[in-house]
Structure formats: structure tokens, C-alpha cells
Write a structure and sequence with these properties.
Helix content: 25-40%
Shape: globular
Protein name: DUF4180 domain-containing protein
Strand order of the largest sheet: 1-2-3-4-5
Strand content: 25-35%
Structural class: alpha/beta
Largest sheet: 5 strands, mixed
Number of strands: 5
Distance between the termini: 30 Å
Number of helices: 4
Order of helices and strands: EEHEHEHEH
């Protein structure tokens, strides 16, 4: 199961991806439930940090999440990204900026999401 941790300051949701599971509409509902209070307060979805410490072969399913975000930034820390993956995700939601980092660069991802 993917694990979610939310933060109000900065307004970020961190998702630890389970390498054995695709990202589904059910996972999107969990994301929305975890962040509905923040959306009510701030009026939009949080910036998102996705971390995968192991190889993840279902990156294309993250598009479900990106399409549901209102605005903001998405930093993904992992490996084995598909070719032109950032552009692929941004094409599903031009209001979201995507940055791909290696799995050990989560501190850099947090810093970029704060700016």
C-alpha cells in the first residue's frame, strides 16, 4: 500500500510508493481524503513529493494523480523513469510543474517544493 504523509507548512503531501502496486483511482481517493482539509483551507491541492526507494515499473500510472491536481509542483524521487516522463505528466495537467530526481535526492525535492 502506498503511504501518505501531509504537511501544512509547507503545504506538501509526501507519497511513499509501494513498488509492487500500480497507482489507481482508489489511491487517488485516499490522496483526496488525506488532503481534503488542506484543500478546504488553501483552496487547492498540495505540492506533492513522490518517493520510491526501490525500482518502480508503474510510473505511467502516476498520471492519474497529476491529472487530479489543481496546480502546483510534483517532485518524483526514484529511478527507471520512462523516456520524456516529465513532459508526459505535464501534458496531462499543464498547471503542474514536474521535476524528476534520483531516489536519494528527496531533500532537494522538498527544497524545490518549498520555493
Amino acid at each position: 500500500m502506498h503511504k501518505y504523509k501531509t504537511s501544512a507548512s509547507p503545504y506538501v503531501c509526501e507519497i511513499a510508493i509501494d513498488p509492487s502496486l500500480v497507482y489507481t483511482k482508489r489511491d487517488l481517493r485516499v490522496f483526496k481524503c488525506k488532503n481534503e482539509h488542506g484543500v478546504a483551507v488553501y483552496g487547492h491541492s498540495p505540492n506533492v513529493l513522490i518517493v520510491s526507494k526501490e525500482s518502480y515499473s508503474h510510473w505511467n500510472t502516476v498520471r492519474i494523480l497529476v491529472g487530479a491536481l489543481d496546480t502546483g509542483k510534483l517532485a518524483i524521487c526514484g529511478s527507471n523513469f520512462p523516456k520524456d516522463f516529465a513532459e508526459y505528466l505535464e501534458s496531462s495537467n499543464p498547471a503542474v510543474k514536474v521535476r524528476l530526481l534520483s531516489h536519494d535526492q528527496s531533500a532537494e525535492g522538498w527544497e524545490w517544493l518549498r520555493c
